[in-house]
Please model this.
Amino acid sequence: MDDAARTRAAAERAVGDVDPPALRRALTDRFDDAEMTPGALTLLSARALDPDVDLDAVEDHAAGVQLIYEGLRLTRSLSQTEPWASADLDADGDIDADLDVLAADVSVSRGFYLLARTAAAEKAVETVRAFGRDQTLRRAADTDAESAALDRNLEADVFELAVVAGTAAVGTSAPAELVSYAAELAGDDDRMPSVGALPDSASDRIAALADEDRVASSADS
Model:
């Protein structure tokens, strides 16, 4: 099973008990079309530091990162499209909009739950807080360029969370240089890169940056 498929399956399991079924479908239907890159990067980070890691034990970390991203991405979309403002909105459309809001909340909360007892918990909180600040600033932005810059912070922040969660899964902390590298991988717009867009060198680079930090820490001790 590849990293994207593994992440999707883990995310679906994480919301498998959500009721009512319509809300669960609102969550899982989004997974069908979503790029699983945040979760895949989490798995890649863990494997980069420990090639023999049991990925079954890392799946919850990957799903947690993916769910937080999906919830925040949906929240960003809803805040900008205002689904209830349409004059053509019928009863079914109103229900769908309500389900989307609930789906966003459930996705983020399940993501938090999966990461709550890990060393990535603090970074997860930081990611959501940063998103809230950015969206507040976006409403006051003077130009489209400012708004776009604030929007694309989400993908960079989530990639940072992915490497923190992945390294935490194998008992390692992510140094600042590695976190910065992850942000660069996210690109320069608010579209999530595909898993295939991650460079082949990413695994080696993650391992090298983590090793540099461990060597520096040993020298200072």
Notes: The radius of gyration is 18 Å.
